[in-house]
Amino acid sequence: MMARVNPDRLLSDLMQLRTFGAQGTGVVRTSYSDADMAAREWLCQRMTDAGLEARVDGVGNVLGRSSQPGPALLIGSHSDTQPRGGWLDGALGVIYGLEIARALSEDVSTRHLAVDPVSWIDEESTYLGCLGSRSFCGVLTEALERDSVNEQGETVREAIARVGLEGVERTRLERSRYIGYLEAHIEQGSCLEETGKVIGVVTSIVGIVNRHVRFRGQSNHAGTTPMSRRRDAGAALFDFAVRVRQRFQVLAGPTTVWTIGEASISPGSKSIIPGAAEMMLQFRDPDSSRLTLMGDAVSALAEEMNAEGPVEISEQTAHVAVAPTTMDADLQEQIARAAQQHVPDAWMQMPSAAGHDPMVISEHLPCAMLFVPSIGGISHDFAEDSLHEDIVTGCRVLADAAASILLSARESA
Amino acid sequence: MMARVNPDRLLSDLMQLRTFGAQGTGVVRTSYSDADMAAREWLCQRMTDAGLEARVDGVGNVLGRSSQPGPALLIGSHSDTQPRGGWLDGALGVIYGLEIARALSEDVSTRHLAVDPVSWIDEESTYLGCLGSRSFCGVLTEALERDSVNEQGETVREAIARVGLEGVERTRLERSRYIGYLEAHIEQGSCLEETGKVIGVVTSIVGIVNRHVRFRGQSNHAGTTPMSRRRDAGAALFDFAVRVRQRFQVLAGPTTVWTIGEASISPGSKSIIPGAAEMMLQFRDPDSSRLTLMGDAVSALAEEMNAEGPVEISEQTAHVAVAPTTMDADLQEQIARAAQQHVPDAWMQMPSAAGHDPMVISEHLPCAMLFVPSIGGISHDFAEDSLHEDIVTGCRVLADAAASILLSARESA
Q1: A21, A208, A320, A374: which could join A29 in a potential S-S bond, CB 3.0 to 4.6 Å?
Q2: Residue A412 has pLDDT above 90, yes or no
Q3: Alpha-carbon distance B315 to B279, whole Å?
Q4: What confidence category does residue B411 fall into, taking pLDDT thresholds of 50, 70 and 90?
Q5: pLDDT tens-digit map of A242-279
Q6: From the CB of residue B309, how many other CB atoms can be counted at a distance below 10 Å?
Q7: Spatial contact of A201 and A332, defined as CB atoms under 8 Å apart
């Protein structure tokens, strides 16, 4: 069985979605921006045109409900972007959901199947990562809405009021309707490209830990303070960064990554010894026990350096640590089978090193993900791109997987 | 011979100068601010009251010319402060100059001697370090006036116009009048305090080199980019900082200091590998050959790391490197002799680890400096302070030294 995905319609919709917030080859469409909301209205209309009962809900999610009764599959991703994002990150999976709903409804053998396409809001964390899927799953607290802000200090609640969604009903997960959530995404790395594969079947999403490390020393004159009397918070930060790397290298598994993406020293003048410094240390791994060992290593290093002096180091987990998420085995199996039909032996199982909405949703609904190759592994950048051929193949694989998942659910029901 | 310094008048003038820009225990009196200009007018009046021919010149320097013919001594410092400065940094030496001119003019044995007190502008580099002494020595170019700006982007030229000094004559060094320049200053360090000494006779001012080091890597996703494929500019900066410290530790002499006071990594997001980074590395030493060795070590490290990859490192001397400045041996000797009279064996020779106007003036006129202890070594801070007793002793020593310098000059003339 092959679902009849329409490649021209798929690519045309992706190109149209790209126009909202387009800047050169890139897209600037952060959550709750004018471009983001206009794209959501457009998407809602495209879903309606496809015969779905569609709406933008009270948090900004767009969901198109099929008129077919369940068991149903939810298929989608997010249509918000990074501050300087690419055209496919999120958008690909959203248009896949729409196209799969259309393709299945157009074939006599699958038109009784229920596919509800969805676009979550703020997966990219302009305010709060996975905001939309949190709302859908009922885990978006009032405190989170009140305390999560964008760079300008606007809260989620204020953003929702600004775009006119205050008081609008929020769609919640109907556990009785859905048997699973499928999301396609660009890989955002280069494993597929390097191994010559076209489809990635995601086994798990890595866990992510962010540790905020603070250094407290004493600002002083950079000329008149002898080296022996300094309490240089900047020097301690540099030291910490190098020593934590040495320890992580010993603990690392094959896919472990770590990054110091933020670091600053104060007051930041060439003739003043830094009295304070801070850094954000992030590490990711699919194995939660390894994440624990790495976290322990950070704490141990801070303790050792505190004992050595002369700078005071404190560290704590920043944001919420995200535990590794395992994708549903049965759903993975169905995607793998469809991949093997379309691109025999040109698919692979792989963990996702980036975070995605299934981190939230998998607590409430079985999830699976499919990756298509990113050219040069580039993502979160205007240069992000994928081959049109791969985009079409990915949609065909996911459509066939969706059809067989829904058909077997009906059989076993 | 003891010059009759008036302790009450000395301290009272220091207290009055402190009121201009006072904030709590500190002083905010940056160059060309309203507080700075008001202080200069007040100072000019105090000099006039002392029988000197005083004026604020076209760059903002205040010079009180004695009616006595030369050979004359120029004695002073600067009355501008750091953005959050202390009450004595600069002010001490300025009021010493005024008090010494008064004390010598009041005694029959010294009233024929010529002391011209002075307050330079912008030693603290709000616009351009040692601006006032540069102007006085004829080395302030039009390009420097046009290109040197404060944090708000105002040029020196604009500041001069704003305070109404445009077109006002600028006082220049009369080489035939002066036999030397003396400056007293708080130590800004804790050598005197730690060794129980009251007076420091400065042997030299350290040379200062600032090296701006830039790191160019590649920004990328902190999850999907494996460690082996990263070009992390931040990690290279941390590495560079630790390795340069190891090399400097080998090269360092007893008073060598080095500081990384500025460092930043870009774009500065916890989930993005830094693609660019930069730091300012400053090192100081009284020995210019050691500064050369240290600079060579920086270049060698950059070359090695460039060969290792994967981040591109470039480095260059930032601002103008300041060569070590040697104080005049005869003037030092006279100050040392006066110190030995006032505080036998409670004085010491020492280099100045901070920069001062004699770095500029000594190219044109013999210079010497005297230090008094800083409590706790604290400076460039609201908490900066010195014992009143030490303040008075310092002035007495410098007054006696000035008198004997001028008397011997007359004898040998």
Answers
A1: A21
A2: no
A3: 10
A4: confident
A5: 999 999 999 999 999 999 999 999 999 898 999 999 99
A6: 11
A7: yes
Q: Which residues in A lie closer than 8 A to residue B188 (C-beta atoms)?
A: 221, 223-224
Rounded to the nearest angstrom, the gap between the alpha carbon of residue B4 and the centroid of all alpha carbons in its chain is: 28
Question: What distance in Å separates residue B406's CA from the closest CA in chain A?
Answer: 31
Chain A to chain B, count of Cβ pairs less than 8 Å apart? 175
Return d(Cα B64, Cα B411) in angstroms, integer: 25
Distance CA(A113)–CA(A107), nearest Å, equals: 10
Please enumerate in sequence order all residues whose Cβ is within 8 A of that of A88, keeping only pairs 6 or more positions apart, or say none: A14, A186, A374, A384, A385, A386, A391
pLDDT of residue A320 exceeding 90, the answer is: no
Query: Half-sphere exposure (CA, 13 Å, Cβ side) for B27?
Result: 30
Nearest in space to B276 (alpha carbons), one of A377, A263, A384:
A263
What's CA A47's distance to the chain center, in Å? 23
Bridge-partner residues for A220, per DSSP? A273
pLDDT of residue B320 exceeding 80, the answer is no
Q: Which two tokens stand for residue A338?
A: 């469809």
Cβ distance of A355 and B223 shorter than 8 Å:
yes
Could you tell me the CA-to-CA distances from B144 to B150, B163, B276 in Å, in that order?
A: 12, 18, 30
Nearest-by-CA chain A residue for B286: A223
Question: Are B321 and B208 a contacting pair, CB within 8 Å?
Answer: yes
Phi, psi for residue B102 in degrees, rounded to 5: -65, -50
Q: How far is A42 from chain B (nearest CA, A)?
A: 29
Give the residue from chain A lying closest to B239, CA to CA: A242
CA distances from A366 to A92, A100, A363 (A): 21, 19, 8
- At residue A79, the pLDDT reads 98
Helix axes B388-412, B329-342, angle to 10 degrees: 130
> What's the confidence (pLDDT) of residue B116?
98
Look up residue B113 and give its two tokens. Answer: 């001697």
Q: Helix, strand, or coil here: B265?
A: strand
pLDDT in tens, A226-251: 999 899 999 999 999 999 999 999 99
Average per-residue pLDDT for chain A: 95
Q: Which domains does chain A have, with CATH numbers?
A: 7-205+324-412 (3.40.630.10), 207-322 (3.30.70.360)
Please name the residue ranges forming H helices in A171-230. 191-195
What confidence tens digit (pLDDT) does each residue in B261-314 have?
Answer: 999 999 998 989 999 999 999 999 999 999 999 999 999 999 999 999 999 999
Write out chain B residues lying below 8 Å of A354, CB-based: 221, 223-224
Residues of B with Cβ-Cβ distance to A252 under 8 angstroms: 227
Write down the ipTM of this complex: 0.81
Q: How far is B286 from chain A (nearest CA, A)?
A: 11
Phi, psi of A85 (to 5 degrees): -100, 175
d(CA B304, CA B313): 10
Cα A45 to Cα A58: distance, rounded to the nearest angstrom = 17
Q: Angle, to 10 degrees, between the axis of helix B7-19 and the axis of helix B388-412?
A: 110
- Name which of A223, A318, A379 is nearest B354 (Cβ-Cβ): A223
A265, A276 contact by CB (below 8 A)? yes
In this prediction, residue A303 carries a pLDDT of: 98
**Contact at CB, B223 and A242, closer than 8 angstroms:** no
Q: What is the pTM of this model?
A: 0.80
| Partners of residue B208 in chain A, C-beta under 8 Å | 223
Pairing of strands A26-27, A257-266: unpaired
Q: What pLDDT is recorded for position B413?
A: 67
> Does residue B1 register a pLDDT over 60?
no
On the CB side of A236, how many CA atoms lie within 13 Å of its CA? 33
Select from A260, A264, A268 the Cβ nearest to the Cβ of B235.
Answer: A260
Chain B residues with beta carbon closer than 8 angstroms to that of A242: 238-239, 242
- With vertex at residue A60, the alpha carbon angle to CA A54 and CA A62, rounded to the nearest 5 degrees, is 25
